[in-house]
Design brief:
- The protein is an alpha+beta fold.
- It is built from four helices and seven strands; from the N terminus they run E-H-H-E-E-E-H-E-H-E-E.
- The protein has a single domain, classed as Aminopeptidase, CATH 3.40.630.30.
- Strands 1-2-3-4-5-7-6 form a seven-stranded mixed β-sheet, with helices on both faces.
- It starts with a strand and ends with a strand.
- Bound molecules: coenzyme A.
- The site of coenzyme A has 21 residues, from strand 4, helix 3 and helix 4.
């Protein structure tokens, strides 16, 4: 398995993983394309792949010294094998190298798998936004990791 920055030609496989992950954030093709086409894009995206397929990705927005993880998903058949951890660790390494001070994210209150995942990496809760998500309506739990 290798981790590398995403390329525009990865979008179809990224979408396949994302669309099958019900609890992931769901973006349009255009929003993914912006990452690569917009020279001012502040987004970073990493993917995990082997010779057969793309198995997972992580995408973050870099806002000066504050980064925000916007999405992470691992294909169901590859979950719980450490892949999400490798993607997150690689992003954290990049953030440290680029002197980010903190990494933020929000997650559905009921997404206990993702919350357990982030808490394993010492993200801590700092707030909640009521009814932040729709379909179904649900609060967002806000997490932060100070680097
Ligand atoms: C969250 C997600 C990316 C984790 O990826 P993964 O590759 O399965 O995670 P890892 O194997 O690296 O697991 C790391 C830790 O996360 C936690 N974790 C992962 N899956 C878990 C599960 N099903 N139940 C409980 N804890 C879990 C555990 O603490 C685990 O450490 P451990 O295996 O030593 O117990 C993956 O579950 C996923 O794609 N979920 C659907 C999309 C999603 O909800 N994204 C978050 C949007 S905010």
């Amino acid at each position: 398995m290798s981790i590398r920055p995403a390329r525009i030609e990865d979008i179809p496989q990224i979408l396949k993983v994302e669309q099958r992950a019900a609890s992931a954030a769901h973006w349009s093709v255009e929003k993914y394309q912006e990452i690569f086409n917009d020279v001012e894009s502040l987004r970073r995206m990493l993917i995990a792949e082997d010779d057969l397929a793309l198995h997972g990705f992580i995408v973050a927005r870099t806002l000066g010294d504050e980064w925000e993880i916007e999405n992470i998903a691992v294909a169901q058949s590859s979950q719980r094998r450490g892949l999400g951890s490798v993607l997150l660790q690689r992003l954290l390494e990049d953030a440290r190298i680029e002197k980010a001070q903190s990494i933020l994210l929000e997650v559905r209150e009921s997404n206990l798998v993702a919350r357990t995942f982030y808490e394993k990496f010492f993200f801590s809760e700092y707030g909640r936004r009521a009814s932040y998500y729709h379909n179904p309506s649900e609060s967002a739990i806000l997490y932060r990791l100070c680097l």
